[in-house]
Amino acid sequence: MTPTTDQTPAAPQAATEAPALPSLEAQLTELQARHDELSDGFLRAKAEAENTRRRAEEEVAKARKFAVEGFAESLLPVKDSLEAAIVIQNATPEQLLEGVHATLRLLTQALERNRVQQIAPPVGTRFDPHQHQAISVVPAEQEANTVVTVLQKGYLIAERVLRPALVTVAAPK
Questions:
Q1: How high is the mean pLDDT of the chain?
Q2: I need a surface site. Which of 1, 37, 126, 170 has the fewest CB within 10 A?
Q3: Residue 95: C-alpha distances to residues 24, 35, 86, 106 (Å)
């Protein structure tokens, strides 16, 4: 009997499939191992990113909670000085004035340590709407739009205006 055309190609195909099957199984096993390795690495990286995010959130919360701690600590000597002044019963006006000056120095030092800077523009300084607030415009013998007087000092904290200086400004002639 002669083999049919359908049976002849099947024999060589079966022969080629037999050696390829172990090779494909090995590749599948290798790919599964690689997949497991990458999945594990991904999960570890994801967990590390989550831990880092959580730690950063905790640090931000602590920073917000205790941001004023250093400033408050630098003001404690000012409070101590004021309390000491109250305790003195028979202080002379000179002693009180001396104590006020000492307390003002302590307060000034505390503000400087915390980067609070004074805005007190000299007379004749160009009016700066970012740092000054004009209370009135007055006739003056100086250039228009310049500071005539400072009614109240302003303050900057870390280069940001905390309170503008209240000033009078020279009117245009």
A1: 89
A2: 1
A3: 98, 82, 12, 17
